[in-house]
Structures are given as structure tokens and as C-alpha cells.
Amino acid sequence: MTRPRPLVPRGDPADTVKVVGEFAVIDRVLAQAGTARAAQVGPGDDAAVLRTPDRRVVATTDVLVEGRHFRRDWSSAEDIGHKAAAANLADVAAMGGVATALLVGLACPASTQTAWLEGVAAGLAAECAPLGAAVVGGDLVAAAADSESVVLSVTALGDLGGRAPVLRSGARPGDVVALAGRLGWSACGLSVLRRGFSSPIAVVAAHRRPTPPYAAGPGAAEAGATAMCDVSDGLLADLGHIARDSGVLADLDREALVRACLEPAGPLQQVGSALGTDPLAWVLTGGEDHALVATFPARTPLPVGWTPIGRVRKGRTTGVLVDGQPAADVVQAVGAEGSGHVHFG
Fold first, then answer.
1. Which positions does UniProt annotate for Mg(2+) 4 binding (predicted)?
2. 302 and 178 in contact (C-beta within 8 Å)?
3. Residue list, annotated binding site for substrate
4. DSSP 8-state secondary structure symbol assigned to residue 298
5. At a CB cut-off of 8 Å and minimum separation 6, what does 166 contact?
């Protein structure tokens, strides 16, 4: 006769994945998941089944590795769940779609507190809920025996609502470059945390829980955006993807960018002054705010939430300029390190 596992109260140091067991942990996590409007069959079977009225599915994946994308001493479990969801939901919005569901794979040490995993699940659910999305499945596995790090892989699925997807390759000379959302806040918050501080809380919170402008993606698609991208690695880097894929130059207007991102003066200037950093460096190269950058035909009225920050030009090369000057020169002038995040760079 198999003896039942001893019951361990939540919050007890012994309340770990190893003690509670895989399936009991999954039950606890799924209790936090919420319900996806598109789900015909939710978690519990070998796979979920989603309704796809558009008959096309937007799909995207991000992997978050502890120590590189998040730190448990800097962020709560709920923060990490919000951040993991936002990184993927913003990619769906950048295609002009609306997210419908998430699939989550997680590898963790056996010593991981089950309450911490429930917190991650609660953060994922809270970020998804306003969109009508939810976690509909995934996998939980033990990390390598010699690893104490958590790895979180999130796949987002979305619906285009009958719209054509907005690609990175559609920008044309004469188009307006426009921004939705904020830039530089997450990078500023990261700079604060790296120095052992936790204020101004506004920028630290922005690093812990980005606030992508989800509705701006479908809004841009409906308004006729010619190209669009999520700003996850930095404005210069991600706008550079649009420029290269479209075969154009994207020329940012520095004054317009400052008005859009640094006025009125706020915590970015406060932290920049304290650290001797030009806040424009965070705006140009900081990632993980998950703003959206897009291009629109010149005569198209910009939809609500979008601000013009530059123009698309024809050139012999492709890339990003700032006031007609190579972005690398501006990056050097403001003291930024590179033009944005590059893995293995």
C-alpha cells in the first residue's frame, strides 16, 4: 500500500516541488491560470484546443533564463510572471494581432518553493486577463542536477481578426516612423537595481513589470501601418530590423524623440543626473519596455496612442540615422554601450 505524501502548509520551507510532487504542483499552478476566451479545450488533456475565427494563428516564443532575464532577489514571482507574459504578448501585438493563449514550459530545481511557482502563474494570468487570454497548457520539468536556475519558456498564440499581418518588411520611403508606449524606463530601472538601489520606484517597477501598449498593435494595423516591431532589444536595434528588412533608412528626429520620451522631465532625468548618464542613451538603446515602433504612409492620420518620431528615407544603404547622422555617432555621443542588446554579442 502506497503511503500518501505528508501535507505541507503553504509557505513552509519544506513546501517545495520535490515534496509536493509534479502533478500536485501543476494543479496548484493551473488554479491560477484563468480562462482563455478562445479555448475550446483548456488545460488537462494532452493538448489544448483553441478556436481560430481568423483561420490563421500568430505564434511567438521567448525564453527567460534566471540571472540573465530576471533575478529572484530583484523581482517577485508575480513580477516575473508579468514580464514573461508581456514579452510574448507584445510580439503578437506587433504583428497587428490580439493574443489568445499562452503555453508555458518551466524547468526548475527540486528545491523551488511551490508558492513561488504559484506567484509566477498568478503574474502570467494577470497580464493575460485584460486581453481575454490565459495559460492553456505547458510542461514542468526538473532542472539539471547541478543547476539552481529557473528557465521559463513562453509561447504566445494570437488572432489577426481578419487583418493582414504587419511585417517588418513593408516600410517605404516617405513613411512616418511612429512610437507607441514608452522607452528607456526598463533600462533606467536596471541601472538603478545594478547599483543596489530600489528607487525611484517608477523606473524599478517598469523594469520588473513592463507595460506594453497592446491595443496599439491592432490599432496600427487597422490604420494601415506598413511595418511594425516590438522594441525589446532597443529602439536602434529593433527599428534597424525594419530598415534592413524593408531596404530603407529610418531617420529619427531627435527633438521629436525627446518630446515623446523625455518630456516633461521625470525619473529618467533624475536618475541620469545622479549617475552621470544621458537619459537619451536609455531611450535609444534600452530594451524590455516592449513599446511598439511602426511606419505609416505620410498622409495617414496616426491612430490614438501613436507619436511621430522620424521619417523613412531611401538610401544606398539600410539602417537607422538620427537627424541624418549615423546612429553609431549619436550612441557614442550620449555614452551608450552599443546600439542595443545582442545575445552572444
1. 46, 60, 91
2. yes
3. 69, 288
4. T
5. 94, 95, 96, 217, 220, 221, 225, 226, 227, 228, 294
Which grid cell sits at 29? 499552478
Find, among 118, 121, 115, 127, the residue nearest to 83 by Cα: 127
d(CA 113, CA 102): 23
Binding residue ranges: 46, 60-62, 69, 91, 138-139, 168, 230, 232-233, 288
Structural domains in the chain, sorted by start: 17-43+52-159 (3.30.1330.10), 176-334 (3.90.650.10)
Which residues are annotated as part of the binding site for ATP? Answer: 138-139, 168, 232
Cite the annotated binding site for Mg(2+) by residue number: 46, 60-62, 91, 139, 230, 233
Cell 507584445 found at: 90
pLDDT in tens, 201-214: 999 999 999 999 99
pLDDT, tens only, 100-141: 999 999 999 999 999 999 999 999 999 999 999 999 999 999
